[in-house]
TrEMBL record:
Span of the signal peptide: none
GO molecular function terms listed in the Swiss-Prot or TrEMBL record: chromatin binding
Alphabetized PANTHER family for the sequence: OS09G0346900 PROTEIN (PTHR33827:SF3), PROTEIN SAWADEE HOMEODOMAIN HOMOLOG 2 (PTHR33827)
Name this polypeptide is given: SAWADEE domain-containing protein
Pfam families: SAWADEE (PF16719)
InterPro entries from the UniProt entry: SAWADEE_dom, SHH1/2
Domain SAWADEE per the UniProt entry, residue ranges: 8-110
Source superkingdom: Eukaryota
Length: 114
């Protein structure tokens, strides 16, 4: 459960997480710098072919109270014919931080630079 965030004296952002079933004394501050990279660029529809199976991407994990980009690996890609709205492909990804898996569209993905 995401509770709040703070910025440390060194300018790094941390989020406070509480695990279901534990009390406040179990709260844990997690440094998100490792999970969220500063430089990332959303994929253009025409760049969908650059997303590779096994490749590292950033994926927007949408939660009720917070959406955060996390490192994720592409497990499978279901290529679809692009239409007037652009990419319709489906990307089956697994987040590195919690090993959860999700099928997402290209707009939820970002390219990792550097
Ligand atoms: Zn596509």
């Amino acid at each position: 459960m995401f509770l709040s965030h703070r910025v440390t004296s060194s300018g790094e952002t941390e989020v406070c997480v509480r695990f279901v079933g534990f009390g406040a004394e179990e709260d844990e501050w997690v440094n998100v710098k490792k999970a969220v990279r500063g430089r990332s660029i959303p994929f253009e529809h025409s760049e969908c072919c650059k997303v590779m199976v096994g490749g590292l991407v950033l994926c927007l994990q949408e939660r009720r109270d917070q959406s955060i980009y996390y490192d994720a690996h592409v497990l499978e890609i279901e290529r679809k014919t692009h239409d007037i709205r652009g990419c319709r492909c489906l990307f089956f990804i697994r987040y590195d931080h919690d090993s959860s898996e999700e099928t997402v569209r290209l707009r939820r993905l970002c390219r990792v630079l550097g």
